[in-house]
Structures are given as C-alpha cells and as structure tokens.
C-alpha cells in the first residue's frame, strides 16, 4: 500500500532545531514542506537556502487556510507555543511539539481539545532515542534506588529551566517511587538555589554553558554505591528520527500523546 503523503508546516524554521527539521522533512519523500511560520518581527523575510520557494507566514491561521497542512512541527519558544498549539488544533492541524515550557495544566487542556476533535498530537520534550532510554532506565532504577538527583546541562541560549526532558524524567521517577525527603533534614542553603529545584522530594540542577548541546545525568545513591545514567545529544540531528516518527504517528492518533516513549513500537 502506498504511504500517505503528509503536508508539514514548521514553526521556527530558521532556529537551531527548525533548520534541522527543514532538512529532515525535505529529505523524506513521504513528507512535503508546505510552509514555515516565522515570528512577526521577521514577516518581510523571504525564505533562503533550504527554505527558498517555501511560503513563510506569521500566523498559523493564514498558513493553514492557504496551504492546508496536515501537521504543524513546532520548535519556537515557551512564550508562543501555547497559542500555536491552540490555533493548530482549532484548525484541525495535528501539532507535533518539540518546544518545551508547557505546564501540566496546559498539556491537559490541549489533550482535551484534541479529544473533542478526534485529532492526533504529540508533545515530546525530547525526540532523541537515547534520551528516551535514559528516562525509562531512570524510572526503573528509582524503584530500587530511590535517592536521586538530576543534573541537566545545556547550551547557554536555552530559555527555560529546568529542561523539559528533566521535568519529564522527574515525572516518570515520581511514578515509580514514593515521595522521599532526601538529604539532611537540617540542611541550609548558604547561597540561594545551591540545592537546585525541588520536585517530589528530589532535586533538579540546571547547568548552562556555551559549547554544550543537550545533556542529562540522573544520579542515584545507595549504601556504598552510586549509579549514573547519562545521555548526551552531540548535535541536533540526533532529534530528527524522533521528529520524523512523531509526524507519521500523529496522523494515526485521535488524541494527544505526551512523551515519545508512548508511541515507540
Ligand atoms: N523536543 C526536543 O527534542 C527538543 C526541543 N527543543 C526545544 O525547541 C525549542 C526551540 O529550540 P531552538 O531551536 O534551540 O531555539 P531557537 O531560538 O534557535 O529557535 C527558535 C525559533 O523560533 C522562532 N520564533 C520565535 N517566536 C516565534 C513566533 N511567534 N512564530 C514563529 N517562530 C517564532 C525564532 O525566530 P526569531 O529568531 O525570529 O525570534 C527562532 O527562529 C526550545 O523550546 C527547546 O527547548 C530543542 C531541542 C530538542
Ligand atoms: O533547548 C534545548 O536545546 C533542548 N530542549 C529540550 C528540553 O528542554 O529538554 C530537549 C533537549 O534537551 C534540548
């Protein structure tokens, strides 16, 4: 059977992730890049390089009416992602969201909207297969080694902290261990923030440095032993097989899925 042709629009096509997504979509004959959504500040910019000949829009509405996309791939920023997702769902365009920063309440609201319309959507805080495995292994380890801390390390242009990946990891860990107050009960932070962000009894630490891409270590401690589970994305190509899979899976879903691990076969 011939595979269904999928019309894709990409929000943030000039960004670090957007540029990789453009290349990935153009390289897959099953996918067609039908539009780019750029920030209103760039509305006069014409597509260049790989975007040459691809229509650019500043609104999801205008793009959807004009080019009738099946899927919106979004790699923008935490300030615009909710509005983009709501518009896409309202217009029957399946969102595949890599942008991080949506709250649990916002994700729940978007899921409700998708279910009402019977529309597929995927929100994946991390599309790299190694990162998905790191999260799953950490969830498993937490059953047996409940003392845990997460250190996530990213490039210094990242807007949100902690990372979406570390939040998702924390949620998975919280599902598999009871809340446990770690560290000394009388510990005192001499410098604010020294112990990191608190989540369900454990801590998340965010490092931001030039030269980094996306990295995370989940550290477990037990009597006389430690366990480290680490993943490193060395470039942004690492995320693209996951984005490609999500575009295709979104076509067959009738609700929102949060986390790529939930659509892996
Ligand atoms: N899920 C995953 O696997 C991954 C997720 N991410 C997430 O993806 C997001 C993007 O990351 P990254 O590519 O590094 O960020 P960049 O800052 O490089 O790119 C963001 C792009 O979004 C554009 N943009 C801003 N506002 C709008 C708007 N209103 N409409 C359309 N486009 C807009 C920016 O354009 P302009 O410059 O004109 O403002 C810019 O080109 C982040 O949330 C990051 O955490 C990153 C890596 C992997
Ligand atoms: O901003 C990034 O770069 C990344 N963001 C995502 C996150 O917040 O987890 C995914 C990956 O870590 C890269």
UniProtKB/TrEMBL annotation:
Domain Dihydrodipicolinate reductase N-terminal: 6-127
CDD domains: DHDPR_N
E.C. code: 1.17.1.8
Binding site for (S)-2,3,4,5-tetrahydrodipicolinate: 155, 164-165
Positions contributing to NAD(+) binding: 12-17, 98-100, 124-127
Broad class of where this protein is predominantly found: cytoplasm
Top enzyme class: oxidoreductase
UniProt: NADP(+) binding residues: 42
Superkingdom of origin: Bacteria
Ranges where the Dihydrodipicolinate reductase C-terminal domain occurs: 130-264
Stored InterPro entries: DapB_C, DapB_N, DapB_N_CS, DHDPR_bac, NAD(P)-bd_dom_sf
Secretion signal span: none
Pathway per the UniProt entry: Amino-acid biosynthesis; L-lysine biosynthesis via DAP pathway; (S)-tetrahydrodipicolinate from L-aspartate: step 4/4
Coiled-coil regions listed in the entry: none
Subunit structure of this chain's protein: Homotetramer.
Full protein name: 4-hydroxy-tetrahydrodipicolinate reductase
Natural source organism: Ammoniphilus resinae
Name of the coding gene: dapB
């Amino acid at each position: 059977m011939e595979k269904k042709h999928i019309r894709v629009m990409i929000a943030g096509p000039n960004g670090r992730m957007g540029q990789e997504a453009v290349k990935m979509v153009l390289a897959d004959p099953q996918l067609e890049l039908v539009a780019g959504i750029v920030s209103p500040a760039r509305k006069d910019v014409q597509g260049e390089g790989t975007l040459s000949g691809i229509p650019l829009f500043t609104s999801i509405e205008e793009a959807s009416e004009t080019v009738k996309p099946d899927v919106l791939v979004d790699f923008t920023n935490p300030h615009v992602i909710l509005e983009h997702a709501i518009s896409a769902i309202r217009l029957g365009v399946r969102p595949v969201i890599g942008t991080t920063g949506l709250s649990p309440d916002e994700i729940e609201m978007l899921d409700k909207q998708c279910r009402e319309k019977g529309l597929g959507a995927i929100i994946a805080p991390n599309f790299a297969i190694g990162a998905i495995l790191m999260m799953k292994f950490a969830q498993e380890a937490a059953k047996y080694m409940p003392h845990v801390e997460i250190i996530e390390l990213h490039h210094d242009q990242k807007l949100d902290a902690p990372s979406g990946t570390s939040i998702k990891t924390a949620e998975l860990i919280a599902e598999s261990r009871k809340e446990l107050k770690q560290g000394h009960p009388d510990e005192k932070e001499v410098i604010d923030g020294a112990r990191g962000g608190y989540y369900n009894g454990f801590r998340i630490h965010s490092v931001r440095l030039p030269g980094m891409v996306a990295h995370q270590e989940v550290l477990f401690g037990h009597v006389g032993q430690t366990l480290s589970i680490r993943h490193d994305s060395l470039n942004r190509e690492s995320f693209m097989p996951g984005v490609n899979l999500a575009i295709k899976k979104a076509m067959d879903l009738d609700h929102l899925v949060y986390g790529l691990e939930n659509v892996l076969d």
